[in-house]
Write a structure and sequence with these properties.
By secondary structure, this protein is mostly beta strands. Helix content is about 5%, strand content about 45%. It contains two helices and 38 strands. Keywords: Glycosidase, Hydrolase.
């Protein structure tokens, strides 16, 4: 990679580098390529692997797993779910031509270690440890494999040399007690989010804490021994930008890769210049932190659902089993809410369309299977779909949603006698139909606009019967990032049944832009 690329990163980058929900990031460099993993909670496939050549522009190239487990929580059965659970805060490492990724799941009560020799196209071998090693970070060091984890007291535990199990009699102790206290005694969130790195013979542990009444704060500790005495400092206390590690470029520049809570759009990645002073990686806060860029990030895309009609570039179609139908695959920007049911969606039954069939009866969109999602992004964005509805049954709902615990959607509501366009606001406790309009059409267009500027955080809903004349319906959704879902708002294409489970709809396309309707 050329030197001027890094100069451009250092001087011209506007933060956030991705104005979308990409939290708990872990970034490594392999040669002149960077890879990043992130938290995906209840979405599948899970733990995206993103690739970049400049630390700024990222694309999804693989996922670590298709589905993690098949329990009631992942299947939305018996009133259970894994919203806000699923997989948390992964750790990505590369050693001796093997990629390692550790991630924990509170719903499964396990910690997983995945391995592959091909991070972009390969399958991942999975091992599991009983229990959750909270916010763990891997370190492979001179024949030893360590995992740093915990909250408040930061601990180390040693794994076997093949990183598949806890090493009997291995290192297991607290290495940084009461790690939050270097930020003061007024502790709100105890230190967590560990990232450990060995650099020039020194062990560095990066953490976050959240003092009461203040913002998330990045901490750093160092020691000359993995279980030695650690000294600590505040690395960055600026607008809540925190949690992550550091990475070097081919030319020797260093950057911290952190994230910031950014309202309803989610938690957004920031790149922070780092300079070494007296053996400390000093995080510089002289960076542009208000992005004015208006562009669609490469982790989002439109889709005409015409995979059955034309050959796609191999880089566009990865071999992700859960996202394929008879060899036809959805782009990697798509993820299902919880585990999908492959029997009830198809790209091949009607070429040129995504068919979503109802395989069961659901109470609301929150417990429906086969909800297909993409991230939203700032400062504003809009998604549009065309839905063909002639095979809907009494009690079915199908349309486009602004998806989080507090959701809104515009959809077709089918009844025994007629169909309606309906705008709905709801949450995990209740759902309210704000407006209904009777229709006779079999093809309906829906659009949802998202405005994240200055954390306005409002979504607006529209319908059309001819794709030219658009009509506002219902009322805006005041979006709110909630901990029960722990995820930024998403576009969601859905079809679910409330009475009988044999209906289906066909989505002709999903089109996303960075332009919303003028109010």
């Amino acid at each position: 990679m050329k030197k001027q690329t890094y100069q451009s990163v250092k001087v011209n980058v506007e933060n956030p580098i991705i104005w979308a929900d990409v939290p708990d990031i872990d970034v490594i460099r392999v040669g002149d390529v960077y890879y990043m993993s992130s938290t995906m909670m209840h979405m599948n496939p899970g733990v995206p692997i993103m690739k970049s050549s400049d630390l700024v522009h990222w694309e999804v190239v693989n996922y670590v797993y298709d589905i993690l487990e098949e329990n009631d929580e992942q299947l939305l059965n018996n009133g259970k779910n894994e919203y806000g659970l699923g997989s948390w805060a992964s750790s990505l490492r590369f050693h001796n031509n093997t990629f390692y990724l550790a991630v924990a799941s509170f719903s499964a009560d396990k910690t997983y270690i995945f391995q592959t020799d091909d991070i972009e196209n390969g399958d991942w071998k999975k091992s599991s440890l009983n229990g959750v090693y909270h916010d763990m970070s891997l370190l492979i060091d001179e024949g030893h494999v360590y995992m740093i984890y915990g909250g408040g007291d930061i601990k180390v535990i040693e794994l076997t040399s093949d990183a598949t199990a806890i090493k009997e009699g291995g290192l297991n102790k607290v290495i940084i007690p009461n790690a939050s206290l270097i930020a003061g005694p007024n502790v709100g969130l105890p230190a967590e989010g560990a990232h450990i790195q060995k650099i020039n013979g020194m062990y560095y542990v990066f953490l976050i804490t959240w003092p009461k009444g203040e913002g998330r704060t990045q901490l750093m500790f160092r020691s000359d021994c993995i279980d030695g005495e650690y000294e600590g400092r505040i690395a960055l206390d600026d607008a809540g930008i925190a949690q992550g590690g550091i990475v070097d470029t081919v030319d020797g520049d260093w950057y911290a890769m952190l994230f910031q809570d950014c309202g309803a759009v989610g938690r957004t990645p920031f790149i922070i210049p780092v300079e070494w002073e007296d053996g400390w990686p000093v995080h510089k806060n002289d960076f542009d932190r208000v992005s004015t860029n208006h562009f669609i990030p490469e982790i989002v895309s439109s889709d005409e659902f015409d995979q059955a009609l034309e050959n796609r570039n191999p880089s566009y179609l990865k071999n992700i089993e859960v996202l394929q139908d008879k060899g036809l695959k959805l782009p990697l920007v798509w993820q299902w809410n919880h585990n999908p049911d492959s029997k009830y969606w198809s790209l091949s039954e009607r070429p040129g369309y995504l068919r979503i069939k109802n395989g069961r009866v659901s109470n609301s969109i929150l417990d429906a299977r086969n909800i297909l999602t993409q991230r939203t992004f700032g400062p504003q964005c809009s998604g549009q779909v065309l839905v063909e509805i002639s095979h809907m049954k009494d009690g079915d709902f199908a349309g486009l949603a602004a998806f989080q615990e507090n959701y809104g959607f515009v959809a077709v509501k089918a009844t025994a006698n007629e169909n309606f366009i309906v705008m709905v606001l709801g949450n995990s406790k209740e759902q309210q139909e704000i407006e209904l309009i009777s229709i006779t059409n079999d093809r309906v267009y829906f659009k949802v606009d998202f405005d994240f500027k200055n954390m306005i955080d409002q979504a607006y809903f529209y319908y059309s019967l001819d794709e030219e004349n658009w009509h506002v319906i219902g009322e805006p959704l005041q979006m709110k990032y909630t901990i029960p879902h722990f995820m930024g708002y998403r576009f969601a294409l859905f079809n679910y049944a409330t009475k009988t489970s044999d209906g289906f709809v066909d989505f002709d396309y999903f089109r996303v832009t960075e332009t919303i309707t003028e109010k």
